[in-house]
Specification:
Number of domains: 2
CATH class of the largest domain: Alpha Beta
Helix content: 40-55%
Structural class: alpha/beta
CATH architecture of the largest domain: 2-Layer Sandwich
Number of strands: 23
Strand content: 15-25%
């Protein structure tokens, strides 16, 4: 994303890259592919806006969390990145808990382990790919690898490394107790910096390859969820952010390391002011709709699916969907959980199926919302972002299920990318603080979507059934 000095979006370039499912429970992505797609996006922008790009002051980064990148001494990827959707490391997690008791590990990291997190993925490689493990020089997140390609400097930030489960989260530093107990060398860990720290400039070779100027500085950046909340949480008091993308998240900001005593949600370091993200991650919110579209409505647009789903009444005429296409994280942490439709009768049609999928994503968020209520966190308003925020129906469902007003952003189409660009404005001293940048760059909509009381009552009854369906069926998964 290219923005000007007044935080106006000039251009957004996007490229898709595939998830590699090499066998059951595996989910990986090619670093070469991601780097090539990144270069294509950069070249698209520098070609369309050659003059503007010659004067780019600084670049920031936002990247997918939890993914594990391992590189050798030449900083070449040793293997494809193991990403957040991966589920192969369940037995590895049990082995870790045999070494470090659950209570101790949870106290250090403020989180429970989950498949797809970098720590168990790293130890899975040590157990199953010994040759690859022996070649490791550094571990990185995906955004760290891309930044290295631009600057030839190795580094990471607190938000990503805490989400990878290598930090004493409350202390915001690597946990030597954890690393020593698991026999992981501190030497393979990158140096840690604040997200807005300027790590260097565009490298000469990369400048020639991409068209970016060597005068352009580069900031560290951070995890996508953490940076996305920069654009959503801080212009309205007591707000809770909801992002509906491939996965779906519910998140809050805290100045202190608050965590759920049952570890059903996650607490990671935030990029802002040495604070913390408290969030509930749902693996298949938007993914379920994408899967349904690709298999049954391949030629349709999401806008068209929205229109079809809107023909169904609230509650989808009794049809309930469990959105566990790839297992589930919050609140179940169950890699074996399976998706299902329940209550199907001859009276149901395609509108009910589509709306049931959209409602299920919000029911999963409601489970996280209730956990946040248990933690006595204040949530008076919902700020909605991600692809789901473009759906009027989805926003109405969110408001009705959570019984809260829903706001959106006025001036941003891709929140995490915008947040990364805003961080670069702090790093380059355009703004001196996060609060100053947010005040000048972010606009929340004046109008909100408010709950429909009749629908809210309908959803209360269905939500109880929704929760029961998992409990009754989990033994069959």
């Amino acid at each position: 994303m290219l923005i000007d000095e007044y935080a106006n979006e000039i251009y957004l370039a996007q490229k898709e890259y595939p998830i590699l499912i090499k066998q059951k429970y595996y989910a990986e992505q090619s670093l070469e592919n991601i780097w090539n797609k990144t270069k294509e996006c950069i070249s698209e922008i520098t070609t369309k806006y050659k003059k503007e790009c010659s004067n780019i002051v600084s670049i920031g980064f936002s990247g997918q969390m939890h993914a594990l990148v391992i590189v050798d001494k030449n900083i070449n990827p040793i293997r494809d990145a193991i990403i957040w959707l991966d589920q192969r490391a369940q037995s590895t997690i049990e082995n870790i808990y045999n070494i470090i008791p659950r209570d101790k590990l949870h106290t250090i990291t403020l989180n429970r382990l989950s498949t797809g997190f970098a720590l168990p993925s790293l130890l899975w490689i040590r157990e199953n790919e010994k040759s690859n493990y022996s070649k490791i020089y550094k571990i990185l997140s995906i955004k760290d690898f891309i930044r290295y390609k631009l600057t030839k400097i190795l580094a990471s930030d607190y938000s990503d490394m805490s989400a990878m489960m290598f930090l004493d989260t409350g202390e915001m530093r690597y946990s030597l107790d954890l690393l020593d107990a698991l026999d992981i060398s501190i030497n393979i860990m990158p140096e840690l910096y604040e997200a807005c720290f300027v790590v260097g400039n565009i490298d000469d070779a990369t400048s020639k390859e991409t068209g970016l100027s060597t005068n352009t500085t580069v900031c560290i950046g951070g995890g996508d969820q953490s940076i996305q909340t920069l654009t959503t949480l801080f212009n309205k008091d007591n707000s809770c952010a909801i992002n509906i993308g491939t996965s779906t998240q519910l998140s809050l900001f805290s100045k202190s390391p608050i965590y759920d005593s049952l570890f059903r949600s996650q607490t990671f370091c935030h990029v802002k002011d040495k604070g913390y993200s408290i969030y509930a991650a749902i693996l298949s919110g938007g993914l379920s709709l994408k899967w349904f579209k690709n298999n049954f409505f391949e030629c349709a647009t999401y806008k068209h699916l929205d229109l079809i789903a809107s023909k169904s009444p609230a509650g989808s005429n009794g049809l309930i969907y469990l959105p566990y296409l790839v297992g589930e994280r919050c609140p179940h942490f169950d890699k074996n959980a399976k998706a299902m439709f329940f209550g199907l009768t001859i009276e149901h049609n395609k509108s009910h199926f589509l709306r049931a999928i959209m409602e299920a994503a919000v029911f999963s968020l409601k489970e996280g919302f209730d956990i946040f209520n248990d933690m006595e966190l204040k949530m008076d308003n919902i700020i909605c972002s991600g692809g789901g925020s473009f759906s009027s129906l989805w926003k109405h469902i969110i408001s009705d299920v959570l019984d809260k007003p829903v706001f959106t952003l006025k001036n941003i189409t891709e929140e995490a990318a915008f947040g990364a660009a805003m961080i670069s404005m702090i790093g380059s001293k355009k703004y001196s603080t996060y609060d100053e940048a947010i005040k000048n760059c972010i606009k929340i909509s004046d109008e909100a979507i408010y709950p429909n009381n009749e629908n809210t009552e309908i959803y209360k009854n269905i939500f109880d059934k929704y929760k029961m369906l998992y409990q009754v069926n989990k033994g069959l998964f």
